[in-house]
Specification:
The chain is of the alpha/beta class. The chain has a single domain, classed as Alpha-Beta Barrel (TIM Barrel). α1 links the parallel β2 and β3. It binds S-adenosylmethionine (SAM) and iron/sulfur cluster (SF4) (2 copies). One iron/sulfur cluster binds next to α10.
């Protein structure tokens, strides 16, 4: 009997641009089809995580049967560093390590050291940051700093211990994450940012306690609108608490003043705590709202994302990524990979958040097939 062949097609892979004989990437910063420069590369270093946040890796989907990627499928540190070097040569100034939980990737300090040695065309060091659930930070913060990490962002969705233990899905105590934040500050991974994903009816009662806790502490708290990333979290618009409502709620407790963006393409809208004189008091610090659902900021989105297995995604909501690992492992020269990067970025037209409102719900759902834990935040 003839063997049945099952074609293994990864629907997350987009065809690479056809190589053009002798084509070279233009020198310097790349711009996409909408004129947006490439500035920020988010690198997901593992698909694994020790948490099971309900909105990201629900237990029912990411259980004991889940097929994690084998180690050989992950980009090696040398492969990641090579890709990052080519991105940095073409305008990237910020490298953010993410996952899954990036601190679970063995030897992450070695990777950080390699990335910290890269230089922009102007001779500067790219900024190296990391987003973590904070569970391993208390013991790793100093080593990460020593390796060359500049800053960390810690995700924390509640201060109330039982609520946090429930939300992270693995009964992890809030005190250990707070200890991680303190260790990061002590190690100089500053300014530390804390990201809170707000789900209406789940943890919105923690907005004020979180603001009270971090106000004047040197840590910048940012409230993130719950996003419709991926297909596993059962997202519904009713669960989104708009950033404007968060600010209105905080205003009833603490006077806040709008602050100017610090950089083009910044995702957070910034608000400063006012002091007794009615002006922003830097000692009290600031909060931010990341309104990816209600206030699309695609217009100056300068971010690319590299998955742990080497696929390049041009948007958090892109259904498909470009398989750079294939180019790396086929033994292509730097110039060929750079030409591919340039063709990919120059063809970029993504602006999912801007389109979301005008898309029929079915079409929007069909577009979001890639999970947050695969391409990071
Ligand atoms: N494990 C690390 C962590 O939790 O910080 C890094 C990876 S995690 C995917 C990156 C960020 O994405 C976290 O701040 C997380 O809260 C956020 N995130 C995950 N799913 C989300 C969703 N559906 N909407 C908004 N933010 C989300
Ligand atoms: Fe893990 Fe981060 Fe996703 Fe939570 S948000 S499940 S910590 S990857
Ligand atoms: Fe950028 Fe895509 Fe988010 Fe728009 S939807 S801001 S293009 S990642």
């Amino acid at each position: 009997m003839a063997e049945r062949l099952i074609a293994l097609v990864d629907h997350r892979t987009a065809p690479l641009p056809a190589p053009q004989a002798g084509s070279r990437a233009p020198a310097g910063t790349l711009r996409d089809a909408r004129g947006r420069p490439l500035r920020d590369l988010r690198i997901s270093v593992t698909d694994r995580c020790n948490f099971r946040c309900n909105y990201c890796m629900p237990k029912e989907v990411f259980g004991s049967e889940y097929a994690w990627l084998p180690h050989g499928a992950l980009l090696s540190f040398e492969e990641i560093t090579r890709v990052a070097r080519l991105f940095v040569a073409h305008g990237v100034k910020k490298l953010r390590l993410t996952g899954g939980e990036p601190l679970l990737r063995k030897g992450i300090e070695t990777l950080i050291g390699q990335l910290a040695a890269l230089r922009t065309p102007g001779g500067g060091k790219p900024e190296i940051t990391l987003t973590t659930n904070g569970s391993l930070l208390a013991r790793m913060a100093q080593a990460l700093k020593n390796a060359g990490l500049d800053r960390v962002t810690v995700s924390l969705d509640a201060l109330q211990d039982d609520m946090f233990r429930h939300m992270n899905g693995v009964d992890f105590p809030v005190a250990e994450v707070l200890a991680g934040i303190a260790a990061a500050r002590q190690a100089g991974l500053t300014p530390v940012k804390v990201n809170m994903v707000v789900q209406r009816g789940v943890n919105d009662g923690q907005i004020v306690p979180m603001a009270e806790h971090f106000r004047g502490s040197g840590v910048t708290l940012r409230f993130i609108e719950y996003m419709d990333v991926g297909a596993t979290n059962g997202w519904r618009m009713e669960q989104v608490l708009p950033g404007a409502e968060v600010i209105a709620l905080l205003q009833t407790r603490f006077p806040l003043l709008p602050l100017d963006p610090t950089a083009p393409g910044e995702t957070a809208e910034r608000w400063g705590y006012a002091g007794a004189d009615g002006r922003h008091d830097p000692a009290l610090g600031e909060v931010g709202v990341i309104q990816s659902v209600t206030q699309a900021f695609c217009g100056d989105c300068n971010r690319a994302r590299l998955s742990m297995d080497g696929k390049l995604f041009l948007c958090l909501f892109a259904g498909q990524g470009y398989d750079l690992r294939a180019l790396l492992r086929e033994g292509r020269e730097d110039a060929e990979i750079e030409a591919a990067l340039a063709a990919i970025w120059q063809g970029r037209n993504d602006r999912y958040s801007e389109l979301r409102a005008s898309l029929p719900p079915e079409a929007a759902r069909a577009m979001r097939r890639v999970e947050m834990s695969y391409i990071g935040g």
